[in-house]
Amino acid sequence: MENPAPPYPIQSVDYALQLLLILKRDGVLRVSEAAAELGVARSTAHRLISMLRFRGFVEQARDRTYRAGSAFADLGGGPSSATALLGIARPHLVRLTEKAGETSNLMIRVGADVQFIDSIESKKALRVGSRVGVRLAARLTSGGKVLLADLPFEEVALLHPGLADDEAALSTLKRTLAAVRRQGFGTNVQESERGVVAVGMAVRGVNGSAIAAVTISAPTVRFSRGKVADLLPPLTETAEGIRSDIIRRLPGW
To answer: What domains does the chain contain, in order, with CATH numbers?
Structure first.
């Protein structure tokens, strides 16, 4: 027996919920098909999907389709979850810390922030400690920059309403993310915390979109610009190793 329609339906909410049901059924959202199924204009479907993406329910793949995001997965709508990612990534983080000799971290984006979900501390006496559970502004962290760089800048701007009236800050952020996108990694030189420097790289899912970031953080006294080149090979190996395991163990991600 179907549930009766509410006496005062909110059409936009109903459309968004229908999109989630389509995503659960098909595993993918396409703007044109979503518009046809809802009986709305493509522009309306795109705005609805953009809000779902803003809240983490969908992520855009490189082929411009939309797949289940972390928020959808955590509600049981998809096959992946932060717990599954942790299980896959941890051994890779352990090896990364051993190779780099510095603390490694795994983080995910939560709106305009990043949240550290795992850290493997260096064994050196002077080291960057675990940041598990800490949330920081994504634009100030190495991993957060690579995750933001994976988004259209229009969406990045929406995530930062506080910068809406600061054209200079938005322009600087846009240039920074463009550089991160070009070079394939992000850096954080005491931007989020004094005395700490970090280098980060995106971890990509099956469809090529960035789903997390892996970073190496070190005290400034052991860091130089030249050290970035030394950290990139183990970072790349770690990010690619995690992705390979995701493809093998979570093919629906």
So the answer is: 11-74 (1.10.10.10), 82-249 (3.30.450.40)
